[in-house]
What does this fold into?
Amino acid sequence: MAGNRTLTIIKPDAVEKNLIGEILQRFIDGGFRKLTEEKAKEFYKVHADKPFYNSLVAFMTSGPVVAAILEKDNAVEDFRKLIGATNPEEAEEGTIRKDYAESIERNCVHGSDADDTAQREGDFFFSELEKL
Ligand code: CMP
It folds into this structure.
């Protein structure tokens, strides 16, 4: 049976031409799957006791998502600086959430909060084959 994963690289030519957004959109139009409810619940299980958990799971399964592992020295901290605070009202000027997020829930992007979480979350999306 055919597998359900593939790997893509948006290559330097496309990055240089500012085509990342356009190309990601084509991936989505081409049939990216949404997170299942089960997967979303598992991914955010540390928040299972929080009042926003059910709403968060509903939001995260409401449409396609794009997940990626990003590499950089000091990646967790630098990426969190780039995206800004969870609540866009508290996010610094120039951060992704300040510029684009509409609420604390609909905050555009996720970023791991520590190196060990980044490992778990990366494995969650990308390493299932290795666990078989
Ligand atoms: P994220 O960084 O992915 O981590 C947990 C997510 O839960 C968070 O982004 C938001 O989407 C959501 N979230 C966190 N706090 C709240 C809150 N107080 N109310 C609603 N949603 C929240």
The chain is about 45% helix and 0% strand. The helical segments are 12-16, 20-29, 37-43, 53-60, 75-83, 96-100, 115-126, 128-131. The two ends are 15 Å apart (CA to CA). Residues 47, 52, 56, 86, 104-105, 107, 110 surround adenosine-3',5'-cyclic-monophosphate (CB under 6 Å).
